[in-house]
């Protein structure tokens, strides 16, 4: 009693015996059994019927306690991965650092982990203390101590509807506090990705980070550079697709974790135009997630990195580079610098290039250009990106309004829109010496009499309307001279016509570079 009184006077918390959990019944935790996945119940009951312990664990329990239907359900058991695999028809053992089992029911995937034991000194680590491999199995109490945060260290048994709480997670949920289990510096050194997880959970759940948990983060942030880029990318994707992307990025800045992940994020968010653009993009993403709609990672990263591309693009054009090659080089530089940090997947990088490459093409509203762009496989993503640029004030709203009208119109209205846009400057001005060149061709015996002249010019005019994009892609003198060489034949090959190959507007963004 005296010791307890002294601890109370001094403000010292009494150490909790984490060997025995606090058992919470249905009336104490309030979890609605109907919110628990039927497949999660099936997995736990199958394991229990085979003589093993099995519980829903981690984020699923946390969400259930908060009254939120979990997106994913994880199961923890004392069965080994091999024993789990034998109980289910579609089960696969994965993982190097710690083996887990993926159990599939149709498209539904459940992750089943064996209780982890106390970390041993013999576990392989890198020079910074990050654990590389640790397949040590143990008891449920040891497993709870190995988990990252108190709110993720609770176990729910669907059969008894009881929650086992080893580290005061229920109390922290009620206090809306995020607290790491154990000594923060040591836990962050074991796995630096935990620092990103702190940010994601704090922003998503609107929880406060407990002071001793937050204190070492700014100092230990550089340890994230030692984590494999693929793991960092996965965590960043979870962060951006959490439904609270803007809040997560703001929390990253607050904790000093954004350096190296999105190095120019500070610059972008401090510029009114950049801040508005990124805010609109992330708000749109969060709304789509809240509505249960799909989100494109390529669109997300294209939005976050656009102002880096835009800055370099403008600089290359100011130095005399043609617009399309300048855009390509700018995109290459930005993607190369980010791939080293985030391991952007090839498909995501390709989507980003396509979205960026479409932006100059939206300005060409004459001839067949709008129709060709409308057929692009990623037109909708490029169009949505264009609307973001208009809404942020980067470009004139008239361009976005025109494309909205064109996208929603019938064929007759589209033709009228293209006709009305002919005077907007999209059509390239014909060189003044064209008549002199035609005269020179006739004198040189090019094979065209006066009757053929108008037809040849009509062919060249149509090609100018449809092929200007190809001329922009190829900034070298040979490409610029190509139309003159073709004038010696009966007519210039139409894009995508009998000459074969795709039309110039469909040339991939990185062709020839």
From TrEMBL:
Region annotation (Disordered) ranges: 418-513
Domain tRNA nucleotidyltransferase/poly(A) polymerase RNA and SrmB- binding: 207-266
Keywords annotated in UniProt: ATP-binding, mRNA processing, Nucleotide-binding, Nucleotidyltransferase, RNA-binding, Transcription, Transferase
Entries under InterPro entries matching the protein: NT_sf (IPR043519), PolA_pol_head_dom (IPR002646), PolA_pol_I (IPR010206), PolyA_pol_arg_C_dom (IPR025866), PolyA_RNA-bd (IPR032828), tRNA_ntf/polyA_polymerase_I (IPR052191)
Superkingdom, taxonomy of origin: Bacteria
Biased segments, Basic residues type: 426-437, 483-494
Enzyme active site: 72, 74, 148
EC assignment: 2.7.7.19
Compositional bias annotation for Basic and acidic residues: 438-455
GO biological process, one term: mRNA processing
Root EC class: transferase
Catalytic activity: RNA(n) + ATP = RNA(n)-3'-adenine ribonucleotide + diphosphate
Boundaries of every Polymerase A arginine-rich C-terminal domain copy: 320-434
Acidic residues biased stretches: 462-471
One function term, GO molecular function aspect: poly(A) RNA polymerase activity
Pfam families cross-referenced by the UniProt entry: PolyA_pol, PolyA_pol_arg_C, PolyA_pol_RNAbd
Transmembrane segments: none
Poly A polymerase head domain location: 54-179
PANTHER family: POLYNUCLEOTIDE ADENYLYLTRANSFERASE FAMILY PROTEIN
Function: Adds poly(A) tail to the 3' end of many RNAs, which usually targets these RNAs for decay. Plays a significant role in the global control of gene expression, through influencing the rate of transcript degradation, and in the general RNA quality control.
Family: Belongs to the tRNA nucleotidyltransferase/poly(A) polymerase family.
Name this protein carries in UniProt: Poly(A) polymerase I
Organism of provenance: Pseudoduganella plicata
